[in-house]
Amino acid sequence: MKLLAGVDLLKTPAVIKTLSFFFISIAFFYFGKRWSESDDYQQLIFFSSSASSDADARQRPPSVTLSPNLGKSFNLSSLITPGSEEYGQMSTASTPASSPPAVAVTASPPPPPPPSQITRFGIVDENGTMSDDFEVGNFDPDFVDDWKNNGSEIQADGGKEGGDGGRITIKRYELCPETMREYIPCLDNVEAIKKLNSTEKGEKFERHCPEKDKGLNCLVPAPKGYRQPIPWPRSRDEVWFNNVPHTRLAEDKGGQNWIYKEKDKFKFPGGGTQFIHGADQYLTRISQMVSDITFGHHIRVVLDIGCGVASFGAYLLSRNVVTMSVAPKDVHENQIQFALERGVPAMVAAFATRRLLYPSQAFDLVHCSRCRINWTRDDGILLLEVNRMLRAGGYFAWAAQPVYKHELVLEEQWEEMLNLTIRLCWELVKKEGYIAIWKKPMNNTCYLGRGTDTNPPLCEPNDDPDNVWYTDLKACITPLPENGYGANATDWPARLQNPPDRLQTILMDAVISRNELFRAESKYWNEIIGSYVRALHWKDIRLRNVLDMKAGFGGFAAAIVEHKLDCWVLNVVPVSGPNTLPVIYDRGLLGVMHDWCEPFDTYPRTYDLLHAAGLFSVEKKRCNMSSIMLEMDRILRPGGRVYIRDSITVMDELQEIGKAMGWHMTLRDTAEGPHASYRILTCDKHLLHT
After folding, report:
1. What is the pTM of this model?
2. For position 689, what pLDDT does the model report?
């Protein structure tokens, strides 16, 4: 019975299928082996294997068995179907027409070509290891656009938001001539400068804007060979030559350790005319001269006059100090351009006949190192402008030849300077080597104790020291507020979020407490920047030079600091709104007054990010929106970004203008959702070339 059961088991379908598969496999293996031994076909190469022990296998490296057909030639024409595309190509390449083509094939492939030269684009080298020795690559082709000056037209959405109004045709803007690649409209107005009655006081270095019908109407091009700027902090020490292709400053100041050219870069050793051994050592010396000069604590906001390439301000950044570096566009006209390319805060500005565009009591320290300014001319009117901007109890550091040289002319200049500062009630707290440091009084006691006939006099009570837009200099002393406002700013970083006293002096319609408005704005922007960091990956994109075009109390810039983004922000306070500049400086931030109906005083390709919240819905009543957008394009770097947070009513027109300028834009909902009255327009500027 058991035997019969075994036989019945062998007859089951599962066993039959298994046995069939086994015998078929053996048959295929046998025929395949016989077939591969035929001389008509080339054998494959197999890794050898042996029945050696595991220990032997681990000790002996793997070997390769070569085909016995090595070095033989074969006729492959029989393997190709006549009439096929491959056959036709081979036939036309054959030599005698009567004989079939023969191709010599060897099993040994030719040696591989040498590896191409590796171009470094990041900080991982060719061996896969992290390295600080890397180069920034050229622009991604996706960020380079062909832009022909042929007056071509483009299609854009028109009518209602979202394109419901159909398509409209816009004529796109042309590229400006190459000669305008560093054009600053209000400082390069040759026609207006020629009409000036006098230029002896530096009038030609001040703002002279073109008439409205002669404003910028094209896209300022980048220099040939322009590359993405070197990222901070490396940019402090080197920039691409092609981005600022001017050698005069290197030729004139190379011996003073300012700047020199090396291959395709400019290098910045960190020196200056009076500190050729380096700005860092120079800063340490200043702080040792006066114990109260504690950079990053009591001293937070600094003005550097005649800054050169801004090495003084560049090295202060590592000490938690922000510096407004200023210089005119004079014979060394590219010094501010170098500073901005390095990623250091800077503006083109001149001490001439008008007030600088900064508020009273803005700076904790003002520095002038060989800044080539005659401080005692015209009853000391230029030093009086410094006095207006210097915070009560602030310091003025002067490094110049009259401080230390014993020549008759220079000694007379020193005596004049000493006499003027005494009349200004400044205290000479230290004179050491080539540096002299004065301190401004904390209150008006000294001013009121002077004789009635002492010059310069106090300014009239109706003079507003914060009125700076096209305001002439005045040869008078700006008295300090009797309530001490401005003098009692807290140390950094506490001052960033503390509502300052001068908040109460801002002329604005405020239903609720100004302190509550201040805190609400700070909280609002802190949440917004947090969402940008999370959703739009702001910490991963290139951000260094940032401009907030409508800054309010500086909440946007404060949030940038709080989120530790490695960039600096210049806060612009438009003339069309309340003057909040004193509050911005009391917080330890940088700012400037401006009218966006006119061009801005900076070089093309200055900023990585332009931020405009609620700007266009206000300025459209008084300014040409296309003029503002063209100015934004001028000062924005290729590869830079624009964030416009504004009313739906202006978005259509902004998108039309943006497309005509070649911007790549995305319209986004705010956090309030799709039914909110505001939208966010994010824009990318590409590198345009013809």
Report:
1. 0.79
2. 78
